[in-house]
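Worked example

This section walks through a single chain of length 225. The input is the sequence exactly as stored; nothing has been trimmed or padded.
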Amino acid sequence: MRILFSLVLAVGFLSGAAAADKAKKKPAIAGTYVGQVDGDQAKAVLKADGLIVVHPTQESPGFKLHGKWKRAGKLITAKLKDPEGREATVTFSPAAMSLTVLKIVKPSGEVEEFKSPQFAKKKALADKGPAGVYVGEFDGEQLQIELAAKGRFFVRAAEDPDEGEIYTGKWNLTDKGLSATITDEEGAATTLRMRVTDAGFALVSTVNAEGEEKYFEARLKRVNK
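Given that input, the structure is written out below as tokens.
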């Protein structure tokens, strides 16, 4: 009987230790995150007590939104109020050391969603590195993008890539991911900024010949541990 009692205590202790260890390994969400949101440098401070402060832009450092955040499943929802008491809602997707903004419901009721075009790697063109053939959808069209091993960049129609290139250019690795400069038949240049993913890459933004940048992704990186 004493042996059985000891075994029960040991199992209970080990189970509790394992649960505590699992809880320790679960990354904490609370922290300070910064990044580009629709062209503005934004900052979000998520506190351990469930409070959140958002600075939408550096141009108006005194303008802040206050509220509460809550994690439900794989998403985080923040209920915010601006200085005039108008309500807004932000939905985040948490990842390792970052938060991706999925949707913003502004005080005016306007809904803004962020979804970067995703391109899946179908064929590797080198033993290592991003060189390869990728397929994905952009602006309603299925495209095939080839990152050639020597830095050449080709965009073709995915349905019939043998028809020829829609855009050509060059790509290179940067400290933030991938960058490519492409030109169309008329010689107009566009810069693409991409983020490498497990499946391929995501298109983060484009900069046209006039210098106008369009963002497809709003990703905030954690700046403290």
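What to look for: Residues 2-25 form the longest helix (24 residues).
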